[in-house]
Backbone:
């Protein structure tokens, strides 16, 4: 479907999901992504609050919560004073221990140190100082040979992490290292197989359909 207003169209599909399944944090995560692009600060806040109510420990909830703090800092000077007061009041509730994004991220990692998706979320919202150490931790979890020592290392989670490599600010070398580790964990999954990418590129060049996913 082609449209001149893709974000507005996305909202039309999103609202029924939120109405029918308000307990699903994923719906509120999707809402946040849309409203962040539209720079709708109160709707962004609403999405964060709803996601926190559904599942405060979800890695995506943590990520949008800290992303909201960053967006608000950028927009605060241009906001209506009444809107700003509302957001400030709600932020105090979201961060009862004080609005320190770096400390919040550090606490989150300590509580979820063995979870690949949670550490990836922390990498996404880490400041420049903390980012390198968290990337190193992410790579270590990805390559850990003892599967019982790593939580959440599924094909779905690993695929999503690679798809978000830019948001995680990973270098090409770090992304390749992740893909190599994921391929070692899931050797039959074509999404992590470097040969599969070459085959698909060759098939595309010849105008043929790429091989089916395993």
Residues:
């Amino acid at each position: 479907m082609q449209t001149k207003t893709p974000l507005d169209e996305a909202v039309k599909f999103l609202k029924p999901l939120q109405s029918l399944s308000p307990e699903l944090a994923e719906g509120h995560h999707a809402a946040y992504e849309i409203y962040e692009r539209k720079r709708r600060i109160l709707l962004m806040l609403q999405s964060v609050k709803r996601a926190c109510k559904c599942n405060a420990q979800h890695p995506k909830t943590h990520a949008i919560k800290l992303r909201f703090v960053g967006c608000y800092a950028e927009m605060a000077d241009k906001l209506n004073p009444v809107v700003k007061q509302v957001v400030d009041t709600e932020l105090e509730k979201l961060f009862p221990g004080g609005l320190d994004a770096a400390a919040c991220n550090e606490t989150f990692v300590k509580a979820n140190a063995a979870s690949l998706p949670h550490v990836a979320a922390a990498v996404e919202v880490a400041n420049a100082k903390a980012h390198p150490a968290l990337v190193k931790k992410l790579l270590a979890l990805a390559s850990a040979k003892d599967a019982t020592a790593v939580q959440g290392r599924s094909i779905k989670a690993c695929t999503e992490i690679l798809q978000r490599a830019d948001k995680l600010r990973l270098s090409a070398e770090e992304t390749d290292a992740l893909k190599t580790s994921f391929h070692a964990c899931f050797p039959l999954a074509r999404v992590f197989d470097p040969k599969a990418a070459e085959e698909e590129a060759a098939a595309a060049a010849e105008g043929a359909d790429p091989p089916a996913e395993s």
